Amino acid sequence: MKKRTLALLLSSLMVMTSLTGCGGKGDSTGASAGETKTLKIAAFEGGYGKVYWEKLKENFEKSHEGVTVELTVASNIEEVIRPQIQAGNVPDFIYLATGRPDALTETFTKEQGLQDLSNVLNMKVPGEDVTVKDKLLPGFTDSYATNPYGDGKTYLLPLFYSPTGLFYNKTLFAEKGYELPKTWDQMFALGDKAKADGISLWSYPTAGYLDCMIPPMLAAAGGEEAFKDAMNYKEGFWTSEPATKALETVGKLKDYLDPTVVANANNQSFKNNQQLVLDNKALFIPNGTWLPDEMKDAPKADGFEWGFMAYPAFKDGGDQYSVSFIEQMYIPKDAKNKELAEEFMAYIYSDEAVKIIAENAKGVVPVKGSMEIANQYLEPLQVELLKMYDNGAKALLGVFAATEPVEGLTYSDIYVGTVDSVMTGDKSVKDWQTSLQEATDKMRANIIKN
């Protein structure tokens, strides 16, 4: 395939985000005597702010004599650095999650413009006797979110993470004597009990939110291999036993859904569906850690207290899973100071950096011990939500293999968008399976290989 230059591609993009950083102590790629080096870091300024990047920059420069961090942090970072990229002045280090409107990270991926980060994974965390790969939480470097080509190599690493799961009202469960279900059989038994009390079992904001519910169900039904098969568009997957079990379970939930949900499952009215849990009209709603803040000003039932759990297993003692949304960082293949950027990336996972991030960004890095550090800086509810994996749930990063666009097909419209029709009875689970398999065949033919 004839490759265009990355600079040419980026000239048409509107958006980009990046990261700034700080280096560690010990073995260093800092400048030698009399020499100066500049590490170019670009960072998207989102909800975590920018103060923590400035503190990381300060620490990095102190521990690396002769090194200057050229830090660019902005909410419109893409527009700021695009002219630099066009001129061949590519940042050494970028923090930018996938899923942005202009898909810059996806463009780097499609054009094979990412540096292999195997060296970073094997590096010792600066100042600590542990490698990066051993300090990261399990499951965070084993998906297409970090290994986009499925070639066994890591090209992006996680900076922040947000678990997803089922939210509920702890107070209601205590008042009614309900027990949290560990299996789907227990879930439906609870649904029958709640129905007798005039309460629906579940709600959902929009069908799109089921992208954090279906993967844990697939993994619970067929292990993490089933989840990976789905993400890899495996031939015949959606008619396999694990997929059938998961989809039929979603279909069974039709009889336990609050009757107002589908009509409000849109971008204008989705909060009405979230309000059902706050009003004790529904027991559960799938969502992410942002939900409590999003609904902080909404009216709530007396004594309401947020609860959060992983999705049920299919058998007693079975594994329970939670999809985690991550925000990635990476090093462009054309970066001029890749070794220095690698050292900064390793530093991000140090206790020192984790503390700076928790204190100044109120964010948590997905490494072992991070919650103990964050406890002193986060609100109690934040801590509870982020401890999903400390409490036994297994992490899934629900990202599909990178593909070229398929004309006339938006896969998510089939994958999760069909749920509305299943809930209304307009389509059967069998119809859903057939559509999924047809769409999957088209996507599989367009997977990007490195």
From TrEMBL:
The secretion signal range is: 1-20
Domain of life the protein comes from: Bacteria
Q: Which InterPro entries match?
A: Bact_solute-bd_prot1 (IPR050490), Bind_CPR0540 (IPR022387), SBP (IPR006059)
Keywords, comma-separated and alphabetical? Cell membrane, Lipoprotein, Membrane, Palmitate, Signal
Which NCBIfam families does this entry report, sorted A to Z? bind_CPR_0540 (TIGR03850)
State what protein this is by name.
Carbohydrate ABC transporter substrate-binding protein
